[in-house]
Fold this protein.
Amino acid sequence: MITVTNLTKRFGPTVAVDNISFEVHRGEILGFLGPNGAGKSTTMRILTCYMPPDEGKATLAGLDTFEDSLKIREKIGYLPENTPLYNDMGVVDYLKFIAEVRRIPHSKRKTRIKEVAQQCGLGKEELAKDIGQLSKGYRQRVGLAQALIHNPDILILDEPTVGLDPNQIIEIRRLIKDIGEEKTIILCSHILPEVQATCKRIIIIKEGKIVGSGTPEELAAQAQGEEIVYITIQGPQEQIQQQLDKLENTQEYHLLSSENTSHRFEIISKKGIDLRKDLFQLVVDNQWSLTEMQKTQITLEDVFKQLTTEEN
Ligand SMILES: Nc1ncnc2c1ncn2[C@@H]1O[C@H](COP(=O)(O)OP(=O)(O)O)[C@@H](O)[C@H]1O
Ligand SMILES: [Mg+2]
């Protein structure tokens, strides 16, 4: 349904999107996950024909974003980051305006507005208000309704729950899942639980590049067998780090905090290795003190953290 091939976009010296390729299949909800500034919104702006790429190409439903932008826009619903809604416009007037822009025949507009309002959980009470009078959660529903009004096959949602309270987040996620039953969706987010809750497949992007992809289970399995040990050692920091650098069975470690001579580290093991013996021996050999040592399995959250913070 969506094919992206070697897409690159630069802003001056910044490479916002760096040679990425991926596909989204019909009826799929794809999570596009990455920290702020990773290039998610830029990629979506290219897919929705709001800006051209510098290199590479993207096709949606067989149409090229560059050559067939008008046709593509008919097939896409887009909820941009920070949806620009007109606060002093009535909800119904706004949706009428969008229906007109979307060239929905006059005779069908009323019915169509009713349908999307119902689909997005906008009741009579909300429809009677101005957009500016609505809570942020309901404003986001209006944003979704405008994205859906022309019944597009593809829906692109950029950070749809930012700024919502926890209950609103749950409701919007449920709504997205429902809509996903019949449409192809790309959901951009910098929040792992968000894509985990709604998406069957995840692409992780960092500094414009794809650094991981798969189902949540596949991504978690990549790290299976790796473990994290949290350890707090009292001793001279420089010496401790020198010794940790030398440990063979560690994959990487991070200093989490330091207080006087007490230093807390997060240490990731190589696959299938229990580091605790090595670490204990190290502390004994150097006559430092050990005030904490605990081991946990790596979760998808850790994988995401590793993929997006590691220097590659
Ligand atoms: N219009 C623009 N002009 C200049 N730089 C931009 C523009 N849009 C995005 N960028 C830069 O491109 C990079 C990716 O931004 P963006 O796609 O918004 O990331 P994300 O949506 O993942 O947070 C960032 O470094 C950002 O500052
Ligand atoms: Mg963004």
Observations:
- The domain at 2-215 is CATH 3.40.50.300 (Rossmann fold).
- Residues 97 and 146 are 10 Å apart (CA to CA).
- DSSP finds twelve helices and 14 strands in the chain.
- The two ends are 31 Å apart (CA to CA).
